[in-house]
Queue: 2 jobs
Job 1
Amino acid sequence: MSPRFTRAACAAATLAAAACLAPGAFAQPFDTPPPPAAPRPLSLATPQMQTLPNGLRVLVAERRGLPLVTAQLLVLTGAEADPPGRAGLAALTAGLLARGTRSQSAPAQAQAAEALGSLLDGSADWHRSSVQLTVTTPRLGAALALLADAALRPAFAATELQRLRGETLDEFKVRYASPGTQAALVAQQAVFGNGAYARPVRGTPAGLQAVTRADVVALHATHYRPDNAVLVLAGDVDLAEAAALAGRHFGRWKTPATPLPPRAAVAGSPAKDLLTLVDMGAAAGQASVTMALPVPARGASDNAAGAVANAVLGQGYSSRLNQEIRIKRGLSYSAFSSFEARREGGQWTASAQTKNESAAEVLALVYAQLDSLLQSPVPADELAARKATLIGALSRSVETTAGLAGQLAALVTAGLPPDALRGRIDEFGSVDAAAVQRYARQHFGAEQRRAVVAGDATQFEAALRAAVPALVKVAPQAAAAP
């Protein structure tokens, strides 16, 4: 029998709801927030790996309880393989894997993925290219069939290449008009000099326009091979089932007789200029202040200390940069930093957007926070809070099968054992104030820093030249479209 909603009953329910929502109805019995709980260990099964006869490695992170699996085919070549004048080739090649095969047009391929309740996605990064999708467990076989067709038998249709190139260049037209993008591009070049890491992963406008279909086909034929690939499966599947399915769908993939080409040089010497201005003229409504410096590779012994140092400086709302620049002075909506340790080197970057007239002040605050980290140990309460932020972010990142697969792929790309993920929280937890200060003194010194300010230079050039007379002034990088 359906409930009867009388006027009296509804009135009583409304009054009860109002009482629950009244101020103080659920007041906490303390005046300050409770302390954070102790970090919990990651509950992850040990990743298992098996190599097929053709050299393809199958890596499985088993997680029962939810019938989902993320399947990612990882090719251990990425943007570092882009030849001179063809920046963006690896990104276009990976993107085209989800734009049609020899047996399916791009729309038919997309519809096949949608019928599995998923989305097929191809992308490239440093030292890796990948194509992946997430499906329910009963559909894993069909998903791997779709994945194999995409990676092994792509069509690389000329019309799809032109369409993807045009979409990327149109996006560049918008992004390159931003002071933040301009500052990031110049900072990357300042840190890595002439090395491959100095180029954007997604390429440059000139490089993208130079890429031909023959270039795409050649890169795929050279680097997409089973002895240079790992099939990562995370979720409701075990190694025996995964290996059987991988053999069925990827077993006929043959390793070429020719060896892989040698790795390209990636991390060049930093530029000599300590401060660069990108003059975008009066059209720049804001300025972007960016600080960048090189850091060791992902497998370095002090990598955990570097991640904690970054958390102190600019990861999260309560980090030092955001406290000083946004909260205390209101000079930016957000000030943050990132720590990207790659296979053969990496980059730490701090960034904030601000009014053109306050750019010099913001840059001085970034310098001051770096100096402070070198000079004084991080207080115990601050260190505990920042480590908790870092540990929480890692824990959240592996809550989904896609996140877990992504973390495993990052370890494989860096040449690290997949099981290293299980000890990452302990590594963060063991970092003390002395380790953070030691890392900062080794890697965040004045001689390593490269600063870039992009915006209307007429409003901040004089103030910056007073501090750094030898600064260099450059024009914005162009973002041509077809």
Job 2
Amino acid sequence: MQVAVIGGGSWGTTVAHLCAKNAPTTLWARREDVVAEVRDDHRNSQYLAGFDLTPSLHATTSLEDAVRAADVLVMGVPSHGMRETAKELVSFLRPWVPVVSLSKGLEQGTRLRMTQVLEAELPGHPRGVLTGPNLAKEILAGDAAASVIAMDDPVIAETLLDVFASDGFRVYTNPDVIGCEVAGALKNVMAIASGMADGLGTGDNTRAAVITRGLAELTRLGCAMGGQQVTFAGLAGMGDLIATCISPQSRNRYVGEQLGRGRTIDEVIEEMHMVAEGVKTSKVVMELAKEYRVRMPIAREVHRVVHEGGLATDAYRGLIGRPDARAEMHGMPGN
């Protein structure tokens, strides 16, 4: 079984590193310098400085070379590049090859999940998502981690476990593709909120409240969109939310922290060379909240700061001063 991983960022490279331990794997990246370093030095200093990659991992700048013999296609590009990249490679992809998305975002304009984008551009291919509390550098360092592969077809999902899993990286299956994708996208918005609280100098009580109520918000919207409530209490939901909200490695938490310290969103984004999906996702989330009539006060405050020029201090005061507090489980399925 041959694996093609499309996208040479931190997570795409890490997943390619994991796959290369189990099967012949080719990593595709646009930049020749990244490809040359992965191929010749077994490193990706641009995104994963100081970490060695599996020597058997191959790399190329040619989509055709990466994809034409693939038995599994892994899409590790950001959400804003998913559709265009899929269009570029469709003519090279053999029929019925499973496609697994690593992206935790929603498409601007269409509000589609990534598997829906892949369905439109790569029809006839089984689609799924690999998601969970997976910080790339910790996995490369050998720390234990767990993830979920969500697909409609349980047989394919079981087969792909052997592609991704390793001694320190445990992978579970989950049939709830919608819930896993929505959780992965929305937790980035909540991580910005958690980072803003940290930047403002608030304590652990505040962080715990933001994470817990953030979980309630993404569960409400996820269930309204067709996800299963139990998914949001698992690795794709609570697990990923906790890791992204508290880790110094989290790009979205970093964005929020800088906003909490008084910097503007333009200043923060300009200095980053990696994508923080929560910035764009926050806009889509508010559109979805309106469509599904779901109350999302934390996401709304993040949107105000990121897209409307609001201040983190005002967002914080807006949340703690809300006069419309309700029952804790208000809006949850069955309540």
